[in-house]
Amino acid sequence: MDKPKTKIDRDLYEYWEKSGFFKADPDSAKTPYSLLIPPPNVNGPLHLGHAMQHAILDCLARFKRMQGFDVLLLPGVDHAGILFEGTLNKLLEKEGLSKQKLGREEWMKRAWQFKDENYQAFHDTWKLMGLSADWSREVFTLEPKVQKAVLEEFKTFWDQDLLYKGAYIVQWCPKDQTAIEDLEMEYEERQEKFYYIRYKIDGSDDFILIATARPETIAADVAVAIYPNHPKFAKLIGKMAKNPFTATKIPIIEDKRVEKDFGTGALKITPGHDLLDYEIGKTHKLPILHVVSKEGHITNLDPNLNGLKIIEARDKAAGILNEKGLIEKVEEYTHSVPVCERCKTTIEPLISEEWFVKMKPLAQKALKNIGKICFLPKNYHKIISDWLKEIHDWSISRSLWWGHRIPVWYCQKCNPSHEVGKDKDMVISLEEPKDPDSGELKKCQTCRLSRWVQDEQVLDTWFSSGLWPMATLGWFTRRSLDEGGPNRTKELERYYPWDFELTAPEIKFLWIARMIMLGLWFMDEIPFKNMFFHGMLRDLQGRKFSKSLGNGIDPYELVEQWGTDAARMALYSYSAPGRDAKTSRQIMDERCKNYRNFGTKLRNITRFVIDLAPEKITSSSSTLRNDVIASEAKQSKHPDERSVHNDDRIILEQLNQTISEVTKNIESFNLHLATEKLYSFIWHDFADIYIEDTKNRRAQAQPTLEHVLKTSLQLLHPFMPFLTEELWLKILSSVEGQKLPHINESIMLSNWPGSIDN
RNA sequence: GGACUCCUAGCUCAGCUGGUUAGAGCGCUUCAUUUACACUGAAGAGGUCAGAGGUUCGAACCCUCUGGAGUCCACCA
């Protein structure tokens, strides 16, 4: 029974799209209003959160269009580097395949295939939701347009000395085989053993007691550090301790970063595998040893543990120490262990060659200007500012295949170790570097050969996503970089900064803060005027929806069962800015059902008002039609002043109040309040009271009935686009007896109702 | 350790800058019985707005404290 309705929705969508109603027009004389769709990650299907985002964006877009703005609702998709690669590799694993087995070329083929599948699914869902986006401007983050923007970003950073490459300690995910940044980690509470180990003092029977959770890394210990003036250990300063595994002499040093009350107050220093140790090692100019490989195995630095996985090595190391009588005691303790946010693998801090961006100057500029952005809820201003104040350098390289490959080429002969610097044999370029004049391959200035190899790594996803507000509008696509032509497209001039952007709070730093910094840095202007953080939908126990928990709610199923409009309305009821909400399939069904019923009510109202109109007022229908077509907002004039019944006056007053309240609430992004008002006005004020009261004076009330109905449809259209359009066209065709909609009669083109000035 | 948010009817949630008897949906009770609409209508029960104190003529809303739930950031040798 719902099938034909879905069919009508699809037809309507096609009608809108073909008529070009979704398209922005940069040449228009209208005031622009721009909304940027946060690009969903192309690694999996859209979920309820996406559906809510799309419902909100679409509502605002439709509202602004009706208000007479030139609306740009720009869609796009993110390649989602590490996330996508992880998902695909898991799929390949099931087929018995892997990255290594396939090789880069074949793997990339599969990757693009997988991307296309998801992409198609996105489009289906978007259209099903009624998203009125300008499809002609859709952007994918790996397309040439974005590549050029990314190149520009990279090159500019390089020229400004904000970019560096080097071997530093990083958070390494052994499963994904790449460095990740702090924001991509989370912590898991684990119960582990805490070993108290004796490090012998060289040339004495004395020892220094050290507490550690990682005995397997002892071979890479290069010092023992105590906090300054430790009452028990201070006398040992200047002496050497002996590494329990390698018997190497290691110095005992003082450093105030050691906590006196943690463990024994003495810390083993392993600069190769711990962030704090790395810092302390740097200060004291200690060597760096590697005992954990990028695969998460012990290296040959420790012959006893060589090749073992971390966990195995830990037990064995403890065993060996125990045999040597070096373990004083073992405690059980719980602490949080950093894991990869994506694959939950334990992170191994280790030294790796990576690229970094110096963020201080960008953050400072952002801090100066962040006040120009209107955040909803407004406390996000503080949250993001606080983070910006504490910013550290951004590690932007990832050892993946899926993403923007770092646009740096090294001379194979002169720069085999891929060193980086103004005086090194390297070139920044998307393609194999060419000479701009001859078009031939560029020659290395040292060896005059043209054998270039590109950097193996790709850029962090957010390096490109951070440019989203600019790249989508053609930032730096108008000129090649060497030409110096205008870098601002018409679109960029017109639609940047964006009027509205929204997102889930979980990517406020990864994405939003980056966009703010990059936008200000490159455009000298904030990227968006209104930044809306919606709440997170959670299950009834307050957990996030996730595939692994299997507690997700498929928006597609809701739409199938209750219709798009009903599903949208249910989502608006959860859209209060920044408010998390608990829900379940059952609760979503209840709400959807309620709004499905509301839709039916509206359908019945229309049947009553239009289909069952009294015969004698056929003549007034032409008035209605003119009214509808002209539809000047201010012209929602009220019908026939002379015969105003008191009930008419009341309903028109209520209508007026509804208009101003709904308008105000949409403008302040309180969609949940707008829908609530419309619901109670249409159902209770209009249907239950007014319509009932007009039954004994139907003919007299008919013009008011039609007027209120028509205006209600308009007010409701941004929220329930399909039903309102269907009924709107029905009203028109009932007047002229036509069946098919004529262009320019869509409710989308009607003007937003204004309240009548009394 | 630092920051933020929340606790309102059985359930899920609204309640703008403090202002008359605190709202919605679902659920519940009673009635109406084919009405444009049963995907309905009418009537109703149900809340000392987490607790305590304070400011105020007046507090669900502002301040302080306590309790509970959750999120984020930092850290856990």
How would you characterize the overall build of this protein?
- There is one protein chain.
- By secondary structure, the chain is α/β, with parallel strands linked by helices.
- Among the domains are: 179-348, Valyl/Leucyl/Isoleucyl-tRNA synthetase, editing domain (Isoleucyl-tRNA Synthetase, domain 2, Alpha-Beta Complex), CATH 3.90.740; 408-454, no CATH class.
- 41% of the residues lie in helices and 17% in strands.
- It has 21 helices and 25 strands.
- A five-stranded parallel sheet has the order 2-1-22-23-15, with helices on both faces.
- Strand 10 and strand 11 (249-254) form a beta hairpin.
- The protein binds one RNA strand of 77 nucleotides through strand 8, strand 12, strand 13, helix 9 and strand 25.
| Strand residue percentage | 15-25%
Count of alpha and pi helical runs: 21
Sequence of strands across the biggest β-sheet: 2-1-22-23-15
What is CATH's topology name of the domain at 179-348?
Isoleucyl-tRNA Synthetase, domain 2
